[in-house]
């Protein structure tokens, strides 16, 4: 079975006053056999020397396969000529096996400055699809390759920015000097491989997302590229949330583990981080800001986050123990308060929650609560109810989402967990992303045996989203395990990614 396939290749020579260079771009489709994979382009130019360049993940398609992309750029210098005509193949390493697409052992061949060649047996191909809309971009340029043998009369993009409540149609144009205009190239349009490029530009303004499909009217009837019936979609950045209990300086190699947490925040570009068991030296109750765990994690980030923290009680007989929020985006409001009956700093069941409102670009205001609640027998129920009431009071029609995150000290599926479910206000977003059947049984079908529906879960840390929020979770991961950044606490971290609805 072929698990890797070349979709299309571009070979262009650009000539400007800055000089000349050759750009070779490759789009490869691979079957998603496992998370860890390696995709590479093996190529040589007219000089005959073989090179290997890595491809990077681009997006996942509706059928579950992935698109990977590589762009190789070579300048013309006094020491090196341009690669010229190239031959190439692609490899895919996954789960200890290597798969190839090498044109049945003959390699693929693409002439220099020839434009695009599509290898899929399709009449029209959307080129270089990008699912991410960069911040600030107010228009989207879309290129499509159409088989010139079809004699396309019109190419149109059907698109919507509001999930097809309204829709628009934008005409595309075929310009003979397309490559000269966009890249300073003399490639022809159409080219010798029988493909012609049509271009359209969508005025998306500041929309969060755009969905679209491409229609071509030809001598052989109307043909479409609509991403296998699912339509193409590009959107702004998602909202990424992490919750983690830090274990109050009880770890060996503590500084290394703080650095690992900062690395994950950086790698995943996490927007909002909720931390619990955030410790700093007691110092006769006065604290010691230099030792604050959230501050130290923040110091390892290349661009420090905004930080809001407060402490609840004396922890481990030597720390001010509390909770914190780190945010990539500026706080528009912060607050903190005890949700426990006790407010005695020498009582372990004195529990304070911190809250922040953050204006997330394209999302709007998001209310976030970082909580570390007591065990069920020691005050969980009133503590959660006060936190919920507080969150409800801060939520209004202008707030895009309200999230209550942290260490709840209750097992998934337990009676205390059922208390949250039965409130009918907050839903477990990690469960929703990693075990949707269980989520639907618990939160939609309202099964009686919640513990049986969830099964062996083991979590006591959660990311709860208020129902009616204008976001939906699309991805969830457990971090800081033996296989993901290593253990940094006696808890693991939970990450959930959201998009606007």
Query: Can you count the beta strands?
Result: 30
User: What composes the largest sheet?
Assistant: 6 strands, mixed
What topology, given as strand order, has the largest sheet? 21-22-20-19-30-29
Q: Give the helix proportion (percent range).
A: 10-25%
Q: What portion of residues belong to β-strands?
A: 35-45%
Mean pLDDT: 96
Coarse structural class: mainly beta
Rg, please? 27 Å
Distance N to C terminus: 38 Å
Number of helices: 8
Shape: elongated
Uncertain regions spanning at least 5 consecutive residues: none
Domain CBM21: 1-111
Protein name: CBM21 domain-containing protein
Pfam families: CBM_21, Exo_endo_phos
InterPro entries: CBM21_dom, CBM21_dom_sf, Endo/exonu/phosph_ase_sf, Endo/exonuclease/phosphatase, GPI-anchor_lipid_remodeler
Descriptive account of the structure:
By secondary structure, the chain is mainly β. 14% of the residues lie in helices and 44% in strands. The protein has 8 helices and 30 strands. The strands form 6 sheets. A 6-stranded mixed beta sheet has the order 21-22-20-19-30-29. Helix 2 (254-267) packs across helix 3. 39% of the residues are buried. The mean pLDDT is 96. InterPro entries: CBM21_dom (IPR005036), CBM21_dom_sf (IPR038175), Endo/exonu/phosph_ase_sf (IPR036691), Endo/exonuclease/phosphatase (IPR005135), GPI-anchor_lipid_remodeler (IPR051916).
Provide tags for this entry.
501 residues; mainly beta; six-stranded mixed beta sheet; 30 strands; elongated; GPI-anchor_lipid_remodeler
């Amino acid at each position: 079975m072929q698990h890797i396939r070349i979709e299309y290749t571009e070979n262009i020579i650009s000539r400007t006053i800055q000089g000349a260079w050759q750009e070779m771009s490759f789009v490869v489709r691979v079957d998603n056999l496992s998370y860890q994979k390696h995709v590479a382009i093996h190529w040589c130019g007219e000089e005959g020397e073989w090179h290997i360049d890595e491809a990077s993940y681009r997006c996942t398609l509706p059928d579950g396969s992935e698109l990977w992309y590589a762009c190789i750029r070579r300048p013309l210098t006094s020491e090196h000529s341009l690669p010229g005509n190239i031959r190439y193949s692609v490899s895919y390493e996954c789960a200890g096996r290597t798969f190839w697409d090498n044109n049945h052992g003959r390699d693929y061949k693409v002439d220099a400055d020839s434009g695009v060649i599509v290898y899929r047996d399709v009449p029209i191909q959307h080129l270089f699809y990008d699912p991410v809309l960069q911040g600030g971009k107010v228009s989207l340029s879309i290129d499509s390759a159409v088989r010139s043998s079809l004699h396309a009369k019109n190419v149109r993009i059907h698109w919507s920015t509001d999930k097809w409540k309204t829709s628009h149609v934008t005409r595309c144009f075929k310009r003979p000097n397309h490559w000269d205009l966009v890249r300073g190239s003399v490639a022809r349009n159409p080219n010798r491989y029988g493909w012609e490029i049509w271009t359209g530009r969508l005025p998306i303004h500041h929309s969060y997302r755009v969905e679209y499909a491409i229609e071509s009217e030809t001598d052989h009837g109307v043909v479409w590229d609509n991403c296998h019936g699912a339509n193409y979609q590009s959107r702004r950045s998602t909202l990424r949330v992490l919750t983690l209990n830090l274990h109050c300086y009880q770890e060996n190699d503590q500084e290394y583990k703080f650095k690992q947490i900062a690395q994950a925040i950086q790698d995943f570009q996490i927007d909002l981080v909720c931390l619990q068991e955030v410790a700093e030296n007691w110092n006769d109750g006065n604290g010691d800001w230099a030792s604050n765990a959230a501050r130290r994690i923040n110091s390892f980030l290349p661009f420090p986050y905004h930080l809001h923290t407060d402490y609840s009680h004396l922890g481990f007989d030597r720390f001010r123990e509390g909770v914190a929020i780190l945010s990539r985006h500026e706080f528009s409001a912060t607050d903190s308060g005890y949700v426990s009956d006790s407010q005695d700093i020498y009582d372990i069941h004195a529990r304070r929650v911190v809250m922040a409102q953050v204006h997330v670009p394209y999302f709007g205001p998001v209310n976030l609560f970082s909580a570390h609640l007591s065990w069920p027998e020691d005050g969980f129920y009133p503590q959660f109810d006060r936190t919920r009431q507080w969150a409800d009071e801060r939520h209004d029609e202008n707030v895009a989402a309200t999230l209550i995150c942290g260490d709840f000290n209750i097992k998934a599926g337990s009676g205390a967990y059922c208390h949250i479910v039965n409130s009918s206000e907050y839903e477990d977003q990690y469960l929703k992303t990693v075990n949707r059947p269980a989520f639907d049984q618990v939160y939609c079908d309202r099964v009686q045996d919640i513990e049986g529906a969830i099964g062996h879960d083991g979590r006591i840390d959660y990311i709860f989203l208020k129902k009616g929020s204008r976001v939906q979770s699309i991805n969830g991961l457990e971090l800081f395990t033996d296989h993901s950044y290593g253990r940094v606490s006696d808890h693991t971290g939970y990450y959930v990614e959201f998009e606007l609805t």
